[in-house]
Amino acid sequence: MPVPAYPASDFPERPTAIVTGAASERGIGRATALRLARDGWAVAVLDLDGAASEAVASEIAEQTGAPTLGLGVDIADEQAVIDAVARVDAELPQLVGLVNNAGISSPTPFTEVGTEEWKRVFDVNVHGTYFVTREAVRAFRRHSLGRIVNVSSASAERGGGVYGRAAYSGSKAALLGMARTWARELGEYGITANCVAPGSIDTDIMGGRLSDERKTFLLQELPVGRVGTVEDVAGGIAYLLGRDGGYLTGVTLDINGGSHIA
Ligand code: NAD
Known about the structure:
Elements: E1 16-20, H1 28-38, E2 42-47, H2 50-64, E3 68-72, H3 78-91, E4 95-100, H4 115-143, E5 146-151, H5 154-158, H6 166-186, E6 191-196, H7 212-219, H8 230-241, E7 252-253
Parallel strand pairs: 1-2, 1-4, 2-3, 4-5, 5-6, 6-7
């Protein structure tokens, strides 16, 4: 009996990607949005602050000539997500990519973390990711083409160990399972789903720039001998999202400078 081949759509000349959490000044999301725009994508920036999202979108458009849209949305707010993804779908070219990057950390030890903090971390990192993905998948299915990348964390695989504790690690581990399930269930619609799991990246999520002392500690025995940059992560995401990434699904790229083997 012949093996059925799923219908494969052509990758459009100018696909659109949504990048959540892309407004922060020194963050992974912003670097990813810029990298994708340089690679030829139209980009939608979704972040909490509408003005900041619009400013980043305009800046990227100026630098790259790519069509962009910046929208203020709390991804934990289901209706706001439905409205935002509908706008992206209506106003930008064919939606092909989704980078689930928006996230919050939780440095509180398990014995001290309260219900409120626990729920907020899961509301944003897990439920928010579910809302955005569900809406994007509706658009992907119309063209039988979609690429999803969840930004998980080495913390999910190692059980914290750098900054994030149980709520953060648990929520980021959920993203690994969700992506693998989407990979399994959505392949027949031309959709791939993968993760990146960054190690320590020099951003503001840890409440400020990494001090030199902290960097020295993190670098001990790290094979590449340096802290990761947002561009390191953006490059991995761009590969999984792009034309060359179509035969990768259900994988996790460990962008961590070799910390797993250290
Ligand atoms: P960041 O704080 O600079 O970026 C996070 C962004 O998410 C911010 O722009 C923030 O406004 C946005 N955001 C937060 N809650 C939101 C919500 N409810 N709705 C919409 N947007 C929201 O930090 P970053 O380091 O660039 O983190 C980006 C992602 O990478 C996060 O998911 C983080 O967990 C993950 N990550 C970071 C590291 C690291 O070392 N920096 C390591 C592994 C994983």
